[in-house]
Amino acid sequence: MSGYLDAATAMPLHPAARAALEAALDDGWADPGRLYREGRRARLLLDGAREAVAEAIGARPDEVSFTASGTLANHLAVLGALAARRRFGRHLVVSAVEHSTLLAAAAHHEGDGGETTTVGVDATGRVDPASYVAALRADTALASLQSANHEVATLQPVAEVAALCRERGVPLHVDAAQTVGRLPLHDWDLLSASARKWGGPTGVGVLAVRTGVRWRSPLPEDEHESGRFPGPAPLPLVVAATAALRARTSTHADDSARLAAISQRIRDELPRRIPDVDVLGPAEAAGRVPHIVAFSCLYVAGEALATELDRAGFSVSSGSSCSSSALTPSHVLAAMGALTHGNVRLSLTDEADAADVERLLDVLPPIVAELRSRAGAADL
Questions:
Q1: Is 322 an active-site residue?
Q2: Angle, helix 15-27 to helix 235-273, in steps of 10 degrees
Q3: Phi, psi dihedral angles at 279 (to 5 degrees)
Q4: Mean predicted confidence (pLDDT) in 21-31
Q5: pLDDT tens, 151-180?
Q6: Within 10 A of 28 (CB to CB), how many other CB atoms are there?
Q7: Which residues are CB-contacts of 307 (< 8 A; sequence separation ≥ 6)?
Q8: DSSP, residue by residue, 160-180
Q9: Catalytic residue of the set 92, 152, 293, 322
Q10: Is this model's pTM higher than 0.70 or not?
Q11: Residue 145, class by beta-carbon neighbours within 10 Å (0-12 exposed, 13-18 middle, 19+ buried)?
Q12: What value, to the nearest 5°, has the Cα angle with vertex 361 and ends 360 and 367?
């Protein structure tokens, strides 16, 4: 693990991705739209990459497009579906714990005259399917629900919500950034993901639109990627991303079982070793992804805790994990009714091992005690 505990933001580049990238720089530099041999070679690489992603997410290859990031994939999925379904209505439904990039798309929609309904969550960060579908209206053009929460690991009831949305004729967009390559995915009409979450390079996002789902690009028309993303896909990066996805998918069952055991060890030990700590998300392993553990410490600033852990050799996320540079309280924790300060997210890479976790559990209590002492709070 080497102390890096922010895999939910970005995974280290997978060895398979690195090898594929080097090969693709030699073979994938030409325009895949050209008929000469270099272009045909590039086209074969692009088609193979698209097929690999399609297989991983349960799609057809022609339903998959590559974008420049997961952020852009989220924006295009939401705004494109809303643009295409404008005659049905201008109402969007989202959960209160969506990634900030999705909420930014919703805010943009509202600024353009649309309307958004935000569905609350319970104390674990989970949406109630009945409450979610109750927010749908006759003029609802799109619903969006993440597959798993990026801050507290909570798995959302996507299959149940998708079935209810289907009954109402409302397409469902799923932000699958934390589950692609980790869990099977089938119940979606539009899907977005980010390659750097599964060990691919930064600069590759995935946008998938089911055949028959109305979608129109909110950007100027372009012939690339079936008109869904302007400009050519960064082919060497795409090839590297799909190599990482293939490798991850082939081992995800074993990796998930191992990471689940490590995560459970952290969840069990934190309250035993540190007073006044709240471990967040579902208690049951079946209700969460295995690689994320989040907790909040009373009387401790999360940024200070992250800084001290960095000095001890551990890289963690604090604050709102998608806007920590602004040091804003986490909208996810606020929606859950949890403590929004002193929170830390640990997210494990595939290389996480028990020895490094034990070292983390050893260094964390004295760090928390020292920070509480500096703040004038007794470590009870």
A1: yes
A2: 170
A3: -85, 125
A4: 92
A5: 999 999 999 999 999 999 999 999 999 999
A6: 26
A7: none
A8: HHHHHHHHHT--EEEE-TTTT
A9: 322
A10: yes
A11: buried
A12: 80
